[in-house]
Design a protein that fits this description.
The protein is mainly α. The chain has eight helices and no strands.
Amino acid sequence: MTTQHTPLHYWRGRLIPEELQLGWAPFYNLGFLLFLFMPALFDYQGKTEMYWVGMPPGILWPTLATIAVFLPLYFRAHWGGGRSPIAYTLAIAALGFLLLPVNPFANTYVIYAVAFVAQIGHRLASRLLWVAAILLAFLLEIVLVRFPIFIFALTTIIAVAVFFGNHFYGENARKRAELKLSHDEVRRLAALAERERIGRDLHDLLGHTLSLVALKSELAGKLFERDPAAARREIDDVTRVARDALTQVRRAVSGIRAAGLASELASARLLLESDGIAFQYE
């Protein structure tokens, strides 16, 4: 079956691997970057009320610069393999650390980094250590720049919630993949059993047919001199039997090929996607 893809789906597949089956969620998650512009709602001249005062240039341009660096890191982090997810995670966290002295809402990058830690293919304990290291570094900077500790507390609560949300989502996705693999394996074994049954049927069919062909051919050879008409009838019977057998063999072989191709394609797709390689077929 052919699936029609729009240009939007094409570019989505270029930016986010389709085998992750995340859909548009990574693009929706970019909406949290709006928190970086929250300083525009605050008056930094000592007033406590919130109202629109405009983004100060000293905050706006560094923030835009970090976003320009963040977006390539964000999309490449979804494609990473081996150690590269850790590198992208630390780079995103570093953006938050660099921006924090001028923008207190730079903790948004720290939360993004912790969210990516949940996708690193390590044990849960190892990933929690990475989360702790990032949050401890963030706490140290909070103390150095003399920001309120509640910023760290709020960031920690959100980051931990996001981490475990992504962790359990990944676990559920893995279990669904294993269940699908087991179902495909059952179908593959069923197809293999069917091929073996067809093979036995072919053996019986060909054995019976070839015995009949040999017998009638021998009889036709003996009747050729004495009764040519009877010999011709025997040869006609041999032709008919051979054609019937050929039809039955073709029907059985086509069933084997159809079942074999479907199971082999399914197995190939599961094998490739388990290694992070997209495989599509029609």
